[in-house]
Amino acid sequence: MSETSDSTETGGVDPEELTDEEWRERLTDEEYRVLRESGTEAKFSGEYVDHHPDDGEYRCRACGTVLFEAETKYESGCGWPAFYAAEEENVTTTIDTSHGMRRTEVRCANCDSHLGHVFDDGPEPTGKRFCINSVAMEYDDE
Ligand SMILES: [Zn+2]
Fold first, then answer.
1. Centre of ligand 1 from the C-alpha of residue 127, in Å
2. Would you name the residues annotated as active-site residues?
3. What is the pLDDT of residues 92-117, one digit of tens each?
4. CATH 2.170.150.20 correct for 17-140
5. Model-level pTM greater than 0.90?
6. Cα-to-centroid distance, 111 and ligand 1 (Å)
7. How far apart are CA 34 and CA 44, in angstroms?
8. What is the 77 CA–ligand 1 centroid distance (Å)?
9. How far is Cα 24 from Cα 88, in angstroms, rounded to an integer?
10. In this protein, which residues make up the domain named MsrB (predicted)?
11. What does the domain layout of the chain look like in residue ranges?
């Protein structure tokens, strides 16, 4: 409700203006592979899988946009950080039919980086499970 859509938290950089080379400079190899090439980190490898703060939020690793509130994070046992709700206007979802599966891909609405997928087997109240790569996010405890 206090969201501002014109985020100035990107360090003055408009992610859409970045060249591929600039992305590679800003991100580690693993971050680049996940965020820009729709990769997936190894199961249970991510730094936020067992990370359950009471407060704070998770931002896009590439551009700093707030994606998830810590209070919507839950233990799904799937091997990646899971949330039952996203900051709706800050993520986009599209049908992804790669790898012979029909899944719904989740991307950052600001910089169009790949974050993970959303499934319909989450807990109440939404029934959603946002299954998100740790390297796509940065925890912010404020
Ligand atoms: Zn972003």
1. 24
2. 131
3. 999 999 889 999 999 999 999 999 99
4. yes
5. no
6. 4
7. 15
8. 26
9. 28
10. 20-142
11. 17-140
